[in-house]
Amino acid sequence: MVTFLAGGTGTPKLLRGAEGAFDPANTTVIANTGDDVFLGGVLVCPDADTVLYSQADELDRERWWGIADDDTATHDAIVELSRAAGFDEGPRFLSPERQTEGRPLARWRRFSAVGEFMLIGDRDRAVHTLRTSLLDEGYGLTEATKRLAEAFALDVTLLPMSNDPVATMIHTPEGEVHFQDFWVARGGEPAVTDVEFRGAEAATPTAEVREALSEPVVIGPSNPVTSIGPMCSVPGFEAALAETPVVVVSPFVEDRVFSGPAAKLMQATGREAGTAGVAQTYDFADAFVIDERDDTRLDRPVVRTDTGIDTQADSARVARAVREALDRIV
Ligand code: GDP
Question: How many Å apart are CA 267 and CA 283, to the nearest integer?
Answer without folding.
Answer: 18
